[in-house]
Amino acid sequence: MAEDSVEIIMNYSEPVFRPPSEADSFILQITYGCSHNKCTFCGMYRNKKFFIRPMDDIIKDITAAGKLFPGTRRVFLADGDALVLKTEILLKVLEELNKVFPQLQRVGIYGNPHGILRKDKEEIRQLKELKLGIVYLGLESGSEEILRDVNKGFTAEDMIECVRYSQEYDIKMSVIILLGLGGVKYSRLHAIKTAEALNRMEPRYLSALTLMPVGGTPLYEAVKKGDFILPKAEDLLKELRLLIENLNLKGTIFRSNHASNYLPLAGRFPKDKERLLAEIDYTIEHGNLIPEFFRGL
């Protein structure tokens, strides 16, 4: 009995992150950390060195999960940007997942332009065929100036191209933006340029998070020194309103239900655009924001 228990212990390297929509998924780490790991605002993998896990270890975890969760329908491949791995490695992982989980419906993964655009059309097709169904990409901002300031490592143009490329082959893209990333100084620029980028992307899903400076990051130190001024809660809502006002999306599902946000919203563009704006206006007027102590990352 003890021997069987040892066989089904999976090896996670903490901390482990996943998108809110992957709450019910089996989380499989195929990399540890983030290959870029230089964004000034991000503390997720700050103390983790990027490492590609050996295939034998990955397969052991899949086998263990198969014993524990044989009915698994969704899997999320972690860590930060696991899509940077060579396609041959990703295909081996996906093949094993399909073999072990006969009810598998979809595999999700974090991605960036480097991981997506270096794969040719046949590689994308093969990944899709083995049920890679959604990629989560952090646009953060559509402003090239803000992206440079936060050391994102990619341009807005890079990210627009990779979203359109992936969706051309029916891999859904879930794009994440970060309210407040331009600070007070660039709040308006951030909202307008981000809307422009999103309009060109037409992502299947769009999520808005709110910047919360994390200790140990360069942005946190900039806030402490007064070099970066985060907009107040009401101004963050006005930034969100300006963003939504400038969105001209067709069929995009929008959410701002992350714990960092002051106002949870949900809707589909374009039909819910006016309702979303009305909800923001009502909240600004009446001040019924999520209390600060309920917010988190």
Low-pLDDT ranges = 1-7
Compute the separation of the termini in Å: 39 Å
Q: How many strand segments?
A: 10
> Helical content, roughly?
25-40%
- Please tell me how large the radius of gyration is: 20 Å
CATH topology: TIM Barrel
Biggest sheet overview: 8 strands, mixed
Name the CATH homologous superfamily: Aldolase class I
Give the helix tally: 11
Q: Strand-and-helix sequence, N→C?
A: HEEEHEHEHHEHHEHEHHEEH
The CATH class turns out to be Alpha Beta
Looking at how many chains there are and whether they match, the oligomeric state comes to single chain
How many domains?
1
Q: State the shape.
A: globular
Describe the structure.
The protein has a single domain, classed as Alpha-Beta Barrel (TIM Barrel). Strand 7 (172-179), helix 8 and strand 8 form a beta-alpha-beta unit. The model is unreliable at 1-7 (pLDDT under 50). 39% of the residues lie in helices and 16% in strands. It is built from 11 helices and 10 strands. It is of the alpha/beta class. Helix 2 packs parallel to helix 3 (87-100). It has helices spanning 2-7, 55-68, 87-100, 113-117, 121-129, 144-149, 156-168, 187-201, 218-225, 233-245, 273-286, and strands at 26-29, 31-32, 51-52, 74-78, 106-110, 132-140, 172-179, 205-210, 253-255, 266-268. The strands form 2 sheets. An 8-stranded mixed beta sheet has the order 1-4-5-6-7-8-9-10. A two-stranded antiparallel ribbon has the order 2-3. The radius of gyration is 20 Å and the shape is globular.
